[in-house]
Specification:
2 strands; Arc Repressor Mutant, subunit A; binds FE2/S2 (inorganic) cluster; 38% helix; mainly alpha
């Protein structure tokens, strides 16, 4: 019987086993784990998984959760109106 897997990131299908493997490979902070596993890069942008990942890492690494900085948010440099992507409203 296959071992039970716990999902950390529902959007990207990242499990605790994936996180453990990445930790063994040397990825030990949220930013590098995000790049390695795509955790937090799904449609919810980490709203659900980043707090779970911080909690899991805190227990695995023995580090207080407040010392694990959340990944940097990279918003667009300037807001872009959606109509520009649709090609509407630029006739005049
Ligand atoms: S649950 Fe991880 S990005 Fe949505």
């Amino acid at each position: 019987m296959a071992p039970l897997r716990s999902l950390v990131c529902f959007c990207e299908g990242v499990t605790t086993e994936d996180v453990d493997r990445a930790l063994e490979e040397g990825f030990r902070d949220l930013e590098s784990l995000k790049r390695r596993l795509r955790v937090g890069m799904g449609p919810c942008q980490g709203r659900y998984c980043i707090p779970m990942l911080i909690s899991y890492l805190s227990r695995r690494l023995g580090v207080p959760p407040e010392r694990l900085a959340p990944p940097r948010v990279r918003p667009p440099l300037e807001p872009v109106p959606a109509r520009l992507f649709l090609g509407v409203g630029d006739e005049g």
